[in-house]
Here is the input.
Amino acid sequence: MAGARPWRAVQNFFEQVGEVGLLAVVSFGNLFKRPWEKGSFILQLEEVGVRTVPVVTLTAAFGGLVFGLQTYSGFHRYIGPGTEAYGGSIVSIGLVRELIPIWVAVMVSGRVASAMTAEIGTMRITEQVEALFSLGADPNKYLVVPRLAACLIMLPCLTLYGDLVGVFCGWLYNVLMGVSGFAYIQSAMIYMEIWDVAVGLIKALIFGAVIAVVACWNGLKAEGGAKGVGRATTKTVVISAVSILILNFFLSKALPATLLQK
Amino acid sequence: MIRITDLHKAFGDNAVLRGVDLEVRRGETMVVIGQSGSGKSVLIRHIIGLMKPDRGMVAVNGTDITRLKGPALQAVTRKIGMLFQGAALFDSMNVFQNVSFGLERQTDFSSRKIRDRVKESLHLVGLRDVEHLMPHELSGGMKKRVGLARAIAYRPEILLYDEPSTGIDPIRADAINSLINDLKAELKVTSVVITHDMASCNRVADRIAMLFGGRIIQVGTPREIQRSPDPVVQQFIRGEAEGPITEW
Here is the structure.
């Protein structure tokens, strides 16, 4: 019997991965099926997008500032005074390809995904999900699809916005330290491609899907009263944040560094 | 109207329903009694298609709903309304939005007709001028009434009540029992009521079915159940601590 417990844990893990995968397949299928829950979708657009703008602004701004600070002091100290403008390319590519998509996704999972799980979880334990079904609404279409669609649209939008804020703040720090703003931008433009921005947006799209599906799945599986909803909420934040970091590595590896032919 | 045949349902190793057979006739109020955890709520969830059995059949108007899913299932369950134990009102919506929710999805009514129907349904359950209130502003009894108004808004042929008198005081519970009788007379609905409250049971039942050990052990009129020689039924209706149910 001693060997049964680890085996059971492995079995549970694969069962859960299968359930999340199935929910993703059904929800993506339902994305294109009428009737659409427009009211719920617009509410989610506001929740995921508009209400997350302040936290994304702060994160991207201070991330851009600290990244600008580090490249400035790095170039100044190790390469020599006058070379700081070369940091423009490092800051810009590093932010748009890697850091902003991760920061935005982690912020959304902390602020929005946890709320999605808590809301759906509470609906589940108070029989509201069953009530939806009994009143002719498909719980997947009503609860999951609007959240998935909102995340798929808003994560890339927030990432693009974060890119602008982060890159601007990196530039601003260097300009305030006496670096030529023009030289800084020129350095960024020489090395950065549109593709770098596109990579960040592709990542944001995938992170958006992961966040929405994980959040909704945890909410729909919540049981055991308020404690169970609390547990499900924590699980959502942990699973989505860890998945984002793991996925980011594989996406960075899989997506080509450049589309320009050498 | 509703025919349940050899219904089995287990959750892991816990076999909750072990071959339930039950027939509910058109227009009657069937009350299913049984102790807490005996599987009454599981049984009622099979009637509306919220659960799939491991084995057996649930026929509504001759259609086996256990084999249906998606729009085909909803076409049958559209004829069924359900009052949930805690009313299950949508927290984020006011009373009007709650009651109109099913109408907007199950009918092609104009917004004016929906407004009239919501008002009429609330009136039927004895509520007025509450459309703008949010669920957290309602008392337990009012929540049940709004839940009932929502269930009857699209005029279903069958009404399912899951523990309608649980969680409210005896006076409000009796008012809910009167409502169940009034709605039956007014709307000519077939009702299935799940309860362990014998006072409520005797007020509303045309027939009573006792669920015990995962099976229906007796079906009869309130008078027949009162006179049942079965010691399990007798222990339950008398509410005695000692007896075969406790020993089971």
Summary: Chain A has a mean pLDDT of 92.
